[in-house]
């Protein structure tokens, strides 16, 4: 947990996760790097902490969030796992 933040109570943590889940579900076209950064910052982790939790290097996570590199599907799955999310395809909207 990032020491710059006051820890959330268990009830507050659950509410924050629910709000994050709803926000991400409302915008399924959000780019993967933005989703990953949103998850990490909402859970109040530093890049190093979140990378360690997910089993990827901090440099890899930093490069993905900055959109310097494209993650593999396996890496994306590792980075989504703390939120209980999985990678899936969403058809483009035909309302153009």
TrEMBL record:
Residues 36-90 form the HTH cro/C1-type domain. InterPro entries: Cro/C1-type_HTH, Lambda_DNA-bd_dom_sf. It comes from the Bacteria. This is Helix-turn-helix domain-containing protein. It comes from Undibacterium seohonense.
């Amino acid at each position: 947990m990032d020491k710059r933040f006051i820890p959330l109570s268990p009830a507050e943590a659950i509410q924050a996760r629910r709000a994050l889940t709803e926000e991400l579900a409302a915008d399924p076209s959000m780019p993967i790097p933005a989703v990953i950064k949103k998850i990490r910052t909402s859970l109040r982790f530093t890049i190093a902490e979140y990378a360690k939790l997910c089993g990827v290097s901090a440099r890899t996570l930093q490069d993905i969030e900055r959109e310097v590199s494209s993650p593999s599907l396996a890496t994306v799955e590792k980075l989504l796992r703390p939120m209980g999310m999985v990678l899936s395809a969403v058809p483009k909207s035909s309302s153009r």
